[in-house]
Amino acid sequence: MQGLAGEGVGGEAGTLYDIGSHQTQNRSASVLLGRHPTPAPGRIIAPVQDPRYEPVAPPSGGASTSPSRVERWTRGLIEILQTLVVAALLFFTVNLVTARIRVEGSSMEPTLHDGELVVVYRLAYRWQAPSRGDIIVFRFPLDEDRRFIKRVVGLPGETIDVHDGKVWVNGQALSEPYIAAPPRTDGQWVVPEGELFVLGDNRNNSSDSQNWGFLPLREVIGKAVLVYWPPEDIGWIPHFESAVAAGD
Question: Quick check: is 223 catalytic?
Answer without folding.
Answer: no
